[in-house]
Amino acid sequence: MKIVSRNEELLRDALTCIPQSSRRTSLSSCNKLIRFEDISAAAFKIQCGVQKTPCMYSRLSKQYGMDIYLKKEFLQYTGSVKERGVLYLLTSLPQDQQRKGVIVALDSNFSMAVAYHASELHIPVFVIMSTSTSPARVKMCREYGAMVISYGTTAKDSQTHARRLAQENGYLYLEEEDSAVYLAGLGTVGLEVYEQVPKLDAVIFPAGGHCGLLAGSAAALKHLNPRISIIGVESESFPVLQQSLKAGHPTEDQACNNHNFYGDVSGLCFGSNSLQLTGKLVDKVVSVREEDILVSMLRLLECERATVDAEGAIGLAALVAGKLPELKGKRVAIVICSGNLELHLLQQCIARALTLDNRVCRFSLVLSDCPGDISKLLEVLAREEARVLDIKQERTFVTSELFTVEVTCTVETRDKIHTAQLRNALLERYPMAVWTER
User: Which intervals hold domain ACT (predicted)?
Assistant: First the structure.
């Protein structure tokens, strides 16, 4: 199988014909390869259905010593870049299939995008979700216009039921995969980034198992300028893409974490087409820790007022972790691809990130239970300009001498240096103070 593309040596023979697995019954375009012309056609066809999101210079540039431009794909209507591939996929379906309808399972950005765009195109759409799905996500899918059915206690139950309904009623069962049509839609991100930021040196994408955005955009960018460095970033906890590239075929990492914090970042590698495109066109794939992702989410919230999830923040996390020193002084674009973080997780993530960033700290000390001692402690904190978030006193279970009180205090500081100054000031006055390690 060949890649047809004008003057593009890097794309030539990037893929070979690989039959689709029998369990993937939704699409039959595995024998068609992505071309640059396909991506251009997708950009033209979906231009009225998705946002041309901004790619803006970031205030984080000075902090990390490079010109950083953020491609804000989380501003799409459903909060995800997946809309691009889904819209092009749906508009490419035969009219008789559009009349019959489509069906998806699982709580994912892909399913949300299908629910919204199928409804906008007046295609009947059914979403099967397990009973453990967040009520907020169920409500959102219904508001997009989909018929949502709760079935089963696990994702596997929902998928099985969706396939059965598709077979019985003639619906097209859709699941995220690396068909040429879907990759071409996702690849339009690369076209826009190239147009919006001149003289680019590198573009950073989220990777993980679902590397369609990385593969499709790499095809577009490398065609336009082979000198642009394409970098993928995935989690250290499940480096599915790096394992698959090393093995030469998609692998299923049994250690994948299904916690909804990670979303699509922790998904299984879903296609040989994307994998081979990635191996051919992507210059580097790095992995980052969960701590780096959380701090990246905090940076984006503070500096860009962008509330994103793990998939959206993982590209910046590579810079937070110092994994790309070669980009110092360069012009770099980062694709912020998703902002679908559930509210209860947002509070936990930000609180944890502040601790990891040495901005919230806790210490304990024992004072005599006399009037004025607590006031003197608060005077020290005020003098050091630390903001008290919480203070607790324990008298009953104190193991030291009688008539003493154990005080545990949680405070907010400006940064790591400020935290160190506060610690030194407290230890100078209270040598027995104990700091809680993060």
Answer: 362-438
Ranges of residues in the chain whose predicted pLDDT is under 70: 1-33, 209, 252-260, 264-270, 400, 438
Domain end marker among 174, 194, 219: 174
Tens-digit pLDDT profile for residues 239-249: 888 888 888 88
Dihedral of the CA atoms 52, 296, 205, 74 (nearest 10)?
A: -30
Please tell me whether residues 345 and 279 are part of one structural domain. yes
The two tokens of residue 76 are: 């799409």
Tokens of 82: 């997946």
Angle at alpha carbon of residue 18, lines to 12 and 19, rounded to 5°? 145
DSSP 212-268: HHHHHHHHHHHHH-TTSEEEEEEETT--HHHHHHHHTS----TT----TTTGGGGPP
3-state class (DSSP) for residue 431: coil
Cβ atoms of residues 407 and 393 within 8 Å:
yes
Same domain, 203 and 276: yes
**What residues make up the domain containing 366?**
359-436
